[in-house]
Amino acid sequence: MRILIVEDEEKLARQLARGLEQNGFATDTLHNGNDAIARISLYRSEYDAVILDLMLPGSSGQEVCKEVRALGVTTPILVLTARDETETKVEALNMGADDYLPKPFSFEELIARINALLRRPAQVHSTTLSVGDIELDTASHSVKKNGKEIPLTLKEHSILEYLMRHPGRVLTREDILDHVWDFQFSSFSNVVDVHVKNLRKKLNDESGRLIETVRGVGYRMVDKV
């Protein structure tokens, strides 16, 4: 899952990115409201959620919400602000935010709220994904095959979740890089192939019967095995 953080306090932005990455999310960070509008507009399909501060240089968080919603962007938006007045909450929600979290906040609550948002876009995300004999729980980050738990790294888990959310669909290496890594990562790296190889080994799928290689393109999670 990929999160865009829009926060002008650079220290807080770094802390958020580090904490989210430790919980299996890929992150990108911006510090300006105008940049946020441009990025979300151009790359709306790349992000699963946006964490948005209200007090930003350039366009305010409220203006960012209003602009991107007017463009038809449906990506869930979680607003952060130091202000806890009811008017501020109502204004942000009316502008298109999906949830609101006043500073200071616990990181555990932030993660819980993000997971809640990810379960209720237009196509509701279940916390449990099943393909063949593989079951993945997005809340506990556990993966089981035939009921036996399989230990995965965070990146392996993120790749498997992305594939399982799109069974039968061919996902290019660029799709996977964009979704699981950040914008600074080199698209010329073979890191996707390495992680898929390790993932197959752990799932006892070295033959590619479950995670199929589409030569010259990418990978596909076979929806019926």
Radius of gyration: 18 Å
Query: Would you tell me the overall average pLDDT?
Result: 87
The geometry reads as elongated
Strand adjacency order, main sheet: 2-1-3-4-5
* CATH 2nd-level architecture of the largest domain: 3-Layer(aba) Sandwich
Give the strand tally: 12
Describe the sheet with the most strands. 5 strands, parallel
What order do the SSEs take from the amino end to the carboxyl end, as H and E?
A: EHEHEHEHEHEEEEHEHHEE
State which percent range the strand residues make up.
15-25%
Return the structural class: alpha/beta
The CATH superfamily of the largest domain appears as Response regulator
List the helices and strands and how they pair.
Blueprint: E1 2-6, H1 10-22, E2 26-30, H2 33-42, E3 49-53, H3 61-70, E4 77-81, H4 86-94, E5 99-102, H5 107-118, E6 128-131, E7 134-137, E8 142-145, E9 148-149, H6 154-164, E10 170-172, H7 173-180, H8 191-202, E11 211-214, E12 218-221
Parallel strand pairs: 1-2, 1-3, 3-4, 4-5
Antiparallel strand pairs: 6-7, 7-8, 8-9, 10-12, 11-12
Attribute tags:
225 residues, Rossmann fold, Arc Repressor Mutant, subunit A, 2 domains, 5-stranded parallel β-sheet, elongated
